[in-house]
Amino acid sequence: MGVRRVALVTGASRGIGRAIALRLAQDGALVGVNYRQNAAAAEAVTTAIEESGGQAFLVPGDVSDAGQARAAVAKAIEVGGRLDVLVNNAGIIRDTLLLRMADDDWDAVLNTNLRGAYLCTQAALRGMLRQRWGRIVNIASIAGLVGNAGQANYSAAKAGLIGFTKSVAREAASRNVTVNAVAPGLIETDITTGMPPKAREAMIAQIPMQRMGTPEEVAEVVAFLVSDRASYITGAVIQIDGGLAM
Ligand code: NAP
Prior knowledge:
This protein has nine helices and seven strands. The chain is an alpha/beta fold. The protein has a seven-stranded parallel sheet, with helices on both faces.
């Protein structure tokens, strides 16, 4: 048995972040459940963790806002006494073709999906470097690897997140702090159930495994990356996409 890890998962009230929070708690971590506005859903996550014998606490805060992002990380450190694991998962979409894209569609997606990760990582990294152990996992997307029509903002943010991952991985590696990204394909969450049915069907038809992935299938890879079992993996981008973007 090792020490109990303290983890912060951004955007953990729903979808992939929720599954990651539950999975890390199952491995014994004390988990900070961050959310932006859906307090009831976030509370349901901490309750579910506690009911299954784990430990969790709520961390409200909009990660795209510098003050709130830094306060969220500070709260996790305050409650947990340290921070070992940061999962930058909070993300939004504002899909539209480039010629129709409003400045606000661009800014909102870049601010949450990329700036949010920058702000949280910067706030979390110092303590990890000092304690000579840390794990950061960024939830990117295959859209950041191969692009997607209608997602110029989202793809740019996710490609940026991959570059960010590799640079910070280089900065932190010698202190035993690993920084990795996962690139999910089509996963069953509020983001994808909101897609037009035709677009969904067309995408599923292109997936070699012929189905969408589950949030739990993403959480399983994240749980591995933040564990001691992944001690020699840093700067990696692991696709979780049923073969979609190979
Ligand atoms: P989701 O079901 O829509 O959940 C999004 C989560 O992010 C919610 O918990 C939401 O909190 C939170 N959030 C949004 N903006 C935030 C902000 N500014 N500050 C803090 N929290 C914020 O999304 P999902 O499908 O699970 O996606 C999670 C991540 O996986 C995203 O980064 C997404 O880009 C990535 N991803 C998803 C897919 C997919 O197919 N679903 C594929 C590839 C990558 P509230 O509940 O308070 O709104």
